[in-house]
Amino acid sequence: MSISPESFPGPAHTAQAESVAVSCCSAFYEQDWVRQLAEDIFHPGGESLTRRTVAAMKLPEHASIADLGCGTGTSAILLASQLNLQVSAVDISAANMERAAERVESAGIAMRLVQADVHDLPFSDREFDAVLAECTFSLFSDQARVLAEIHRVLKPGGQLAITDMATSGPLPGDMADMLAPWTCLADATDQETYIEKFKAAGFSVQEIADESESLNQMILVLKRKLLLLSAGSLMGGNSLPDIDPDFVRYWLNRFKAEVETGLIRYLRFNLQYAG
Ligand SMILES: C[S@@+](CC[C@H](N)C(=O)[O-])C[C@H]1O[C@@H](n2cnc3c(N)ncnc32)[C@H](O)[C@@H]1O
């Protein structure tokens, strides 16, 4: 069976369909086949980009950090277990939080996990030294409101790091329809628009890095994984549920081509609460 846009659960198919903030993305990343392909790493650049992003914050040991849109907890676990930070992790998806809780428990780590919408953060004012949002910011329906919430929960001088998709122009129509809702491209903007939003919310820009090479690496890894899963499926092992590998490969190639033209980029923003 081929994938079509209808194969991807959108807001209308999720339990949280009423929430303004729920994106197709949440339901998309809950699917088993997506986890099989991504292995619980739902952002380009994986662990090495997370390490670079956090290193640029120059946080002291045991600093408090909130991971917004934490998915199944991959980065949150890294932050707590290897970078010695006090982590609070938030995601809107019940399924993701359930999986994150299992992983945190089996790793024997202490961490606060909260299922919540980042538009209303369940945290006190000035609670955190830092906030991290990896591959999630562009999914938030009211980014100004989320930035105001981040501002509220950060201590003055606190750090905000965002890694996300960016575009340098409109996507081809068919690509926008197919990829945007579930690849953090839905509301990705160009670098300058991001900067305007951050500054308007009271953040100063410390560093911007072009991390687009991580998109190429991610595509390569996904293609290899797809090949292995297809081979496994042919041999009667683990199957790829309901997806046509050729169809996925086609869209990966289209995506790669637009990374090469510079239309699709991946950026890291290290920001500081200026107030
Ligand atoms: C592309 S995944 C990134 C997950 C994780 N940050 C990572 O890099 O592995 C996007 C995540 O954002 C979450 N998300 C989307 N909108 C949200 C919202 N309004 N509040 C909280 N989480 C949200 C989704 O459920 C999903 O787990």
Question: Which key features would you list for this structure?
Answer:
275 residues; alpha/beta; 10 helices; globular; binds S-adenosylmethionine
> Any idea what the CATH superfamily is called?
Vaccinia Virus protein VP39
Q: List bound small molecules.
A: S-adenosylmethionine
What is the count of DSSP helices, taking H or I runs of 4+ residues? 10
The helix/strand class is alpha/beta
CATH architecture: 3-Layer(aba) Sandwich
Spatial ordering of strands, largest sheet: 3-2-1-4-5-7-6
By DSSP, the count of extended strands is: 7
Determine and state the CATH class.
Answer: Alpha Beta
Summarize the structure.
By secondary structure, the protein is α/β, with parallel strands linked by helices. The protein has ten helices and seven strands.
Fold topology:
Blueprint lengths: L23 H7 L1 H7 L7 H10 L8 E5 L5 H8 L4 E6 L2 H14 L4 E4 L12 E7 L8 H11 E14 L5 H7 L11 H10 L2 E8 L2 H22 L10 H17 L2 E10 L2
Parallel strand pairs: 1-2, 1-4, 2-3, 4-5
Antiparallel strand pairs: 5-7, 6-7
The structure holds S-adenosylmethionine.
